[in-house]
Write a structure and sequence with these properties.
This protein has 116 residues and is an all-alpha fold. It has 5 helices and no strands. The chain is 77% helix and 0% strand.
Length: 116
């Protein structure tokens, strides 16, 4: 959890007032009490902060999904279980990309010379 320096000092003071040696145990007990319904409060989250939090959570979920997909693809391609037809098609694709790259490197005049 992140706090400004002023908030951190206030948290340390409140923890000490309630008999805690450090602020982490105090903060954890408050959060757990809130989650379990033993403690309720109107949180000071503004609509903007709430939306930012929701957006970040969605982005992290999507990034995780993308990472999982990339790992599954890499694992499949690197395993012996990848079907030969996929390996063959990937080889053909690689060869086609090389041909396209070679064609793009050739001067324009050489293509006309070959056609004549």
């Amino acid at each position: 959890m992140r706090f400004t320096s002023v908030e951190h000092v206030r948290l340390q003071e409140a923890a000490a007032e309630h008999g805690y040696k450090g602020e982490s145990g105090f903060a954890a007990d408050i959060v757990l009490a809130f989650i379990s319904g033993r403690f309720t409060a109107n949180l000071p989250l503004s609509e903007g902060r709430r939306r930012t939090h929701m957006f970040r959570a969605q982005v992290l979920r999507e990034l995780n999904r993308i990472g999982v997909n990339v790992n599954q693809i890499a694992r499949a391609l690197n395993s012996d279980l990848t079907p030969p037809d996929i390996r063959h098609r990937l080889g053909e694709l690689d060869r086609l990309l090389e041909l396209i790259a070679e064609a793009l490197r050739e001067p324009a005049g050489s293509i006309k010379d070959q056609a004549a």
